[in-house]
Recover the amino acids of this structure.
């Protein structure tokens, strides 16, 4: 995957890639983030701020890390993912559904919230995903969307670029799939700048959209309340 695909080609390529890397996905997440991804997921679920027992959809749930964290924080969760390989490797008691983030398998205003971990750059259309979240989440419900980012500090940004662009593909290639872990750092290019990202989320129906940098800006958390 030497260049960044778009449209239907992107959907097929991303699904195939995640099928391939599913068996070692959790191991590499822990190694490559030095375990920080665990805390990021805890922050993501805590940011929902919804009553215990609320039903939360984990979109692009992968192996179920966020589903497990939702359970730990007293929510009911349902996981959705396109990748059969990821669902097969999942370690969660939550119900899992194979489905598309742009056509969520729930009714209008039928769930209390949506979480999503490290998948915004993998959807065919980001505005379409935000619109689908707005359709599915009830008024007053919440979204908490976790994604990678780049530090604002120029020095940290250079160091992060070297790590993400060189170390991640090297380690990922040794343990899992070289092509996939070359693609994942490049896929950050799919993400629009912060003002545009927040504008898209607000326009979809989450007018209080907010971005919180995590760990000096190497990750970001987008939150919003359904109008």
């Amino acid at each position: 995957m030497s260049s960044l695909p778009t449209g239907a080609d992107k959907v097929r390529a991303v699904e195939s890639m995640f099928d391939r890397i599913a068996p070692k996905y959790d191991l590499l997440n822990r190694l490559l983030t030095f375990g920080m991804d665990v805390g990021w997921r805890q922050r993501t679920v805590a940011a929902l701020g919804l009553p215990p027992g609320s039903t939360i959809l984990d979109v692009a749930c992968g192996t179920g890390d966020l589903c497990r964290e939702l359970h730990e924080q007293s929510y009911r969760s349902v996981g959705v993912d396109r990748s059969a390989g990821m669902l097969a490797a999942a370690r969660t008691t939550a119900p899992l559904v194979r489905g598309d983030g742009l056509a969520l398998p729930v009714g209008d205003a039928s769930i209390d919230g949506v979480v999503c971990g490290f998948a915004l750059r993998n959807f065919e259309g980001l505005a379409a995903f935000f619109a689908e979240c707005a359709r599915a989440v009830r008024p007053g419900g919440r979204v908490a969307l976790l994604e990678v980012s780049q530090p604002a500090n120029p020095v940290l940004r250079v160091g992060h670029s070297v790590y993400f662009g060189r170390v991640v593909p090297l380690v990922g290639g040794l343990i899992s799939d070289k092509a996939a872990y070359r693609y994942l750092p490049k896929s950050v290019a799919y993400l629009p700048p912060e003002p545009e990202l927040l504008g898209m989320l607000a326009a979809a129906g989450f007018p209080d959209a907010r971005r919180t940098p995590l760990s000096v800006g190497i990750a970001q958390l987008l939150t919003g309340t359904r109008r």
